[in-house]
Design brief:
- Helix 17 crosses helix 20 and helix 20 packs across helix 25.
- The longest helix is centred in the first third of the chain and has 28 residues.
- By secondary structure, the protein is an alpha+beta fold.
- The protein is built from 30 helices and 30 strands.
- Strand 14 and strand 15 form a beta hairpin.
- An eleven-stranded mixed beta sheet has the order 1-30-2-3-6-7-8-9-17-18-22. Strands 4, 5, 23, 26, 27, 28 and 29 form a seven-stranded antiparallel beta sheet that branches.
């Protein structure tokens, strides 16, 4: 690997070029705003395009949702690609560059860690292989979407961000969508980070300490220390690269809620479906609402720009929406290398290591040369570490990453097929095609059926062994790399349960003793709270589900506050707050002092207990995971862990008073002596961050916020996990809310955490305001209602050469 050595003159020249681009971009954008023409010309009138068979009408309603009326499914998907590129072109370009490892080409050497990671994983190669393996029928389904993107791209003005970075946006390829989907799946599926972190804890403090900190899902005395636990230290640079990649994209792992209630428990007698995916707060938002109408389907919901379909939505017959499945899709593998490092040992003997050379273009600097190597188990990730770290390990050991995301499969066909699904069986067939997306879908239909179904190809293996890195030289049954996968009905699923409710909130769906896969489930508190509220509100209405989505009660933190209320603090202010904590209902409201106190005391309590468990380096040991907060399984389970520790260790309980004292001092130092100013919203502000938020001059204008915001990891209305530092901003939020009543036809309401159309200097708008104040809008699918609610109409007409038009006239 050739490592960049930045030279001052090159850095200065790059800064000057970027500054000049910024000035030109701002001047052009200011002029556009002054003329009151923020690209609205693209959304009215007529446009002649190649790639459609008949006229497509795109109406935009007052909430910014495009309604695409087409005469075939292919033309409807073309329209989806067209509006994605119209409204979110920069977002798509940034995502594509991240997936292909080409951000340093426009951003300079500071982006090299993310590019190295993407290149090492080989996402581009895996995506091209997946597209090559796509059957012709599947290609024909997806290519209209790609054609729609390119038709809009050819007409779209250059986004402000592209002007700032002097970026050229070339045609979109089918493999680009696959690569973006694979990167999403990689970032949203946990496991390898936790495996390495556990190895690091074992290396530092021993297996017994790890089990006290992170108990396995089920007791299993056969669990042993992972092979070569000292490789746990590799997590630091790998986490840094993954964290930077997550930061660039604004994707820090995933958690979500979804549920469905059978008609026997609703006022209307029809099932009710609800979902609210939890993603990183960003501007523009991750999701994009759209309505696609054609003879084959009439579907509306939230899509992801760059992917060909609707991820959370409904059609005339069914409603669907996923949470993160949380099964282990990525496995860290310790490899034994031959003396010449050209082979790796496997259960079947020594196998050669393949090598390839790639060049990473770096703006303002020479290209970086990477020598990338891959064993039979996956790419060698330890060989792209900085030289000073990589040289510290024995040359006969290396670390590979085995991931189902890198298989030559993709989920594009499944995403598109859901649009056509009319019943449970067709829905299951569609999700079975989403092989590299590990998601847990909730489902409901107008015939009264409800269910849950997990998608993806999940490695089959001992869930206890898969908590750690595995040995590449061992057979699967001895704790080596799994060679088999589970899919479809082999994964957790349920349909029409007797209780009439299905819930998925990233908690276990299968008893641990029956699991045949690894998993990194979150605390079941959100699922428990949803079940509690669904049981209370019977018979159920859409308004009830909308209210549940807004709920900010943390069951574990409320229980922790009860423990705090019994503590004996020495600080006078802390003593005065004991009654407040005792009476607190657990609601993490933005204006709540009790919420701020309980959260601050939890941070202090965890710090003290981790120091006791792990030594003075306890906080530093877990610090790398804080860069990817929603993937920090240790922090996500923190409150329940603390409650268990208090219950089992009386000496630990005695630490509560001191933790509350320290928490009060922190709040007093941050917000002054008046405890009325110690509110949760001030303690943890919400900022919807743009990918270029750190850019000079303009960066602060691209993001939305800060806002006072409620919730935490264990509330239904989530706002991300509490780490070990005070004052960290909100790390997750309900990126959208969708509630559907499965009447005939279904009735739906929605809101999005941001604006539909990305206008970079206008991140705050009416949709974000509705989201902040918990208002929902109707998600229309009826043509008459759409016409009434719309003021802009764009007609895409099939392009015909002049000769063809003359013949038609004759």
């Amino acid at each position: 690997m050739t490592t960049q050595t930045p030279l001052d003159w090159r850095a200065a020249a790059l800064a000057l070029r970027q500054g000049a681009s910024l000035i030109r971009a701002l001047a052009g954008t200011t002029a556009s705003i002054a003329l009151q023409a923020p690209q609205t010309h693209k959304r009215r009138g007529r446009v002649s395009v190649s790639g459609i068979d008949a006229t497509v009408e795109i109406l935009r309603d007052r909430w910014g949702v495009p309604h695409c009326f087409a005469q075939s499914a292919a033309d409807a998907l073309f329209a989806l690609g067209y509006v994605h590129a119209q409204d979110r072109l920069w977002q798509m370009q940034w995502s594509r560059r991240a997936a292909l490892g080409r951000i340093a080409e426009i951003a300079g050497p500071q982006a090299l860690p993310t590019d190295r990671l993407a290149r090492t994983l080989g996402l581009e190669r895996a995506s091209r292989a997946a597209w090559d393996a796509t059957p012709q029928q599947g290609r024909e389904e997806l290519l209209p979407y790609i054609a729609g993107i390119n038709a809009a791209l050819a007409r779209a003005p250059k986004p402000l961000e592209a002007q700032i970075l002097d970026d050229w946006i070339g045609p979109w390829q089918a493999s680009d969508s696959i690569a973006w989907g694979k990167l999403l799946s990689f970032l949203l599926a946990p496991a390898w980070e936790q495996q390495l972190m556990r190895a690091r804890i074992v290396q530092t403090a021993g297996l017994e300490t790890l089990e006290a900190l992170d108990p396995p899902l089920a007791p299993d005395t056969s669990v042993a220390a992972p092979p070569d636990a000292d490789y746990g230290e590799l997590c630091t640079p790998l986490h840094e690269a993954a964290a930077q990649l997550s930061e660039l994209l604004g994707i820090h792992g995933g958690a979500s809620n979804n549920w469905a209630v059978a008609g026997e428990h609703t006022v209307s007698g029809a099932p009710i479906f609800a979902c609210d995916p939890h993603l990183t707060p960003v501007a523009p938002p991750h999701a994009y609402f759209v309505h696609l109408h054609c003879p084959e389907f009439n579907a509306a919901g939230a899509s992801i720009p760059g992917l060909p379909g609707i991820i959370w939505g409904c059609n005339d017959r069914i409603a669907w929406g996923p949470t993160a499945g949380m099964q282990t899709m990525h496995i860290a593998v310790v490899e034994e290398l031959s003396a010449d490092s050209q082979s790796s040992r496997t259960p079947d003997g020594w196998q050669p290591i393949s090598t390839r050379i790639e060049q990473i273009p770096v703006r303002g600097y020479p290209d970086e040369t990477l020598e990338l190597r891959e064993t039979v188990n996956g790419p060698l990730v330890s060989e792209v570490l900085p030289p000073n770290l990589a040289q510290r390990w024995n040359s006969t050991r290396a670390l590979a990453l085995h991931s189902q995301v890198l298989a030559p499969t993709h989920g594009g066909i499944g995403i598109a097929d859901i649009l056509r699904a009319r019943n449970w069986d067709e829905f299951c067939a569609a999700t079975d095609n989403m092989r590299d997306f590990n998601l847990c879908y909730a489902y409901a239909d107008i015939n009264g059926r409800i269910g849950l179904r997990v998608s993806g190809d999940v490695p089959r293996g001992n869930p206890q062994s898969l908590r750690f890195p595995v040995a590449g030289w061992l057979p699967p049954e001895a704790g080596g790399v799994p060679q088999d996968v589970l899919c479809g009905d082999q994964l957790p699923h349920t349909v029409d349960p007797t209780e009439g409710i299905v819930i998925s909130a990233n908690s276990p769906l299968t008893p641990a003793e029956r699991m045949q896969f690894g998993a990194e489930y979150l605390d079941p508190a959100r699922a428990s709270r949803i079940r509690e509220l669904l049981t209370e509100h019977r018979p159920h209405t859409r308004a009830d589900s909308a209210a549940i989505q807004r709920d900010r009660v943390s069951l574990p933190l409320r229980a922790f506050a009860r423990q705090l209320a019994q503590a004996e603090p020495s600080d006078d202010d802390a003593q005065h707050q004991l009654s407040t904590l005792a009476d607190w209902d657990g609601a993490m409201r933005a204006d709540s002092t009790a919420a701020a106190l309980a959260a601050a005391a939890l941070i202090e309590y965890r710090r003290a207990e981790l120091s006791e468990l792990l030594g003075e380096r306890g906080q530093d040991l877990l610090e790398p995971l804080l860069a990817i907060p929603t993937l920090d399984i240790f922090a996500a389970r923190a409150t329940t862990w603390a409650l268990t520790r208090i219950e089992n260790d009386p000496e630990s309980a005695s630490e509560l008073g001191a933790a509350l004292d320290r928490a009060v001092r922190v709040l007093r130092r941050r917000f002054g002596p008046d405890s009325g100013a110690w509110t949760w919203g001030r303690s943890r502000p919400l900022v919807l961050k743009h990918g270029l938020a750190d850019a000079p001059v303009i960066g602060s204008l691209l993001s939305a916020g800060p806002f006072a915001h409620g919730g935490e990891a264990d509330t239904i209305a989530q706002s991300g996990v509490l780490g070990l530092r005070h004052g960290q901003p909100v790390s997750a939020l309900p990126a959208l809310r969708l509630v559907v009543e499965l009447t005939d036809p279904p009735q739906a309401e929605f809101v999005l955490a941001g604006e539909q159309v990305h206008e970079p200097l206008r991140p705050n708008g009416p949709m974000l305001d509705a989201w902040r104040h918990d208002r929902l809008h109707p998600l229309l699918r009826d043509r008459e209602a759409v016409e009434e609610a719309s003021s802009r109409r764009l007609r895409l007409e099939p392009y015909r050469p002049v000769e063809g038009r003359r013949q038609e006239l004759q």
